[in-house]
Amino acid sequence: MKIFGKREKLTGEILHEGESAIANKETEGLSQGQIVRRRFFRHRAAVIALIMVSSIVIFVFTALDSKIGPIRIPGWWKWTVEDIPELRFKDCPGGSTGCPTLSIRPGSSFGMGTHPFGQDDIGRDYFALVMNGARRSLMIMFIIGAVSGFIGVVVGSISGFYGKTIDAVLMRLVDFLQTVPTIIIAAVIGKAAGRVGPIFLALFLGLLGWTGLARLVRAQFLSLREMEFVDAARVAGASNLRIAFKHILPNAVGQIIVVVTLIMAGAILTETALSYLGFGVVAPDVSLGLLISQYESAFTTRPWLFWWPGFFIISIALCVNFIGDGLRDAFDPRQRRRITKKDRLQAKAHSKAGA
Amino acid sequence: MLGYIMRRIGVSVMILFGSSFMVYNLAAYASDPLAELRLSTDDGARQAIIALTRDLQLDIPPPIRYFLWLKGILGVFTGNLDLGMTREASSVQSQLAYAIPVTLRLVFVATFTALLFGLALGIISALRQYSRFDYGMTFLAFLLYSLPIFWIAVLLKEFMAIQFNNFLSEPNIPIRWMLILSLFTGVFWSSLFGGERKIFWRIFTGAVATNFVILWAINATDWYLNPGLGPILIALLSFGIAMGVTSISTGVDNKPARNAALTMAGLTVICYFPAQFIFNNFASYFVILLMIAIIVVTGIATSKIFSKIDRGPIARTAIITGILAGFLILIDRFMQTWAEYSATDAVNGRPVPTYGQRKDELVTGDFWISNLDLIMHLILPTIALILISLAGWIRFSRGALLEVLNQDYIRTARAKGLNERTVITRHAVRNMMLPLSSLFVGEVVGLIGGAVITERVFGFQGMGTLGIKAINTFDLNLLMGVNLLLSILVVLGNLLSDLVYSALDPRIRLRK
Q: Which residues contact A253 (CB under 8 A, 6 or more apart)?
């Protein structure tokens, strides 16, 4: 029972060669992509998160009618946001109205009922509202990720590749954007953008969120462009563009993807926070943050109006964060599989057999 | 060095100039302060439009108006700073002067508590890499990362304030909850210490039993209606603090350090009754500061008595022990105020508030009651802020410590026979702190962003509320005031973190 217990000695029991043999064996004869994929799928939490996030996305985007241009794809859910069915009074606790009909209690049978997430003040189906809100929030999240990712990569690579004056100018621009408090500027624009629509808001938030990524990409470029393989490419007559896109960028792509997932996880929180403050998505449009802010005061009497949007925000953000973590481990070249007891015994047996 | 600082300040001023110009114009063009008045057909509305246009100089185009605003800012060098007027014709300075302390209080307490807990959890998590505790902390950190602060704030309001106040009106912890809470703490402590299975179970049963007895005693004595620690409990806890602090800072085998710490703990406990007298009669911030100073001086003196060599760490141990033990007495004094505070008309038996930064009725009252009121109002928003910033610290400190533990100098330290405690506290943790110092600023700035939302949920009249009000009423001068302050904070913070980093790490030399 010591505070400073001895750390588990990874190299204690077996020869160092035995250990690296395990590590090398698992990457032998595999391409970079295969190694990354393999490592990613070994990260259990990340895989579960990936499955969950993709099912949430499919679930959310197919539940309601969606319009792509003139084509209208009907959703599988019976209510829409516009429907105002009758408010349910029966069986509700404490005289409240529109309580959820979802029952997953082990004793009674599993059933969705007519309104699994309940109904709001005027009787609109809350499941439909939450689905619509989650769809908005997911869409905004992807747009912010894409815009921030694109600008961050472009600015960072130009800055890191060319250096000198261009680098100095671009990095001052980054400093400059980082000085502006995001929440304030986003709120100013959000207030104006409420009339323009959520897509515009997402684009604008994307324009603000790329600075950290740009710094990271720049740092990667600065170190990678001094590498021998870049010199080799240049001697072979490759153009600047080719060097940047074919030789340097693929080496930086791991870190870029990781940061973009983190930007996306942050984006859904920023969007919901802004909507909560009234500067993001505004009524009659629906977003998860807006739903929480609208029904915040109803928490004591009708808590389900508060739980469901929160549940969706947290599960989406949590899953995206876990995927990012899995990707980070997968792309990290220093990352080795944790040597388990079984591996050690195997290696020991192996080295004994060899000797 | 001086040249570097001057150059950095110069660049910072340019950046501040640029960013404020951008925000000013963006806000000016994105919002129309007269929009509502224009829609009105009232006669007074036309008068109001004319008056506002004159007062806020709305007839001048924004890019030029910006320079008029800037002129007021530059007045800071001649001693008459002018941030302009709000729409209600009060000066922006006075509004900010009222709001700044409110926000700072919130952010300050939250930052340091989160830092303390986050570092501790992160360090332990790294020391027990791949253990149950480590996995638990990783999951906790990710969960906290993904929590929307407004959501957690509303939950806190419901469960920690409303429900807890209800509970206090008829206080009784059901036995079922006692058991659940005890099992939970048991799991926490046993996984924190880890070790072999036998030790694990021993700690687990110990923690469950202790916790259960404590809860039962609390329940039986109605402690939460009339709390207090009392001299005996303070003596016991002080002894524990003395041993704990020594075992972390120098190790309990170090006799002078242990004796110095125990002496400090003993002295503080002896001072319990005199302290009560002072607290009851001469309570003020100054007196408390004075007492801290006395503890520090006594700590140094004690270390001189107990050791002839290597006094630095021993004095440090003694001072930390003394301050923590003294803090217990302070907490005890606040607890003694609890029943009285709870019974005041303004509180009326519902001591955990959900709204506002303090109760106006209690501001001028008794020192202890008004400060307890302040603390009670701070608790919930602070917890909300701690929860969101805790995740970052856990992850950063865990990662940084693991990185450091793989370095060659740690291997060297172990190889030359230092014990594990010295290796961790002197060689690893100190080096781990270096990269964290540069993250500190970013965290604080992020926390201020979180404070904007927390203030709104808990009805604090701080900078965030001011900023939201400014945006909602299209009050440009007020918005710029808030924005300028936050930007200056970021710029100064970045400069400071670079300087601290270079001062702490001799490997880094700033460009001349």
A: A331
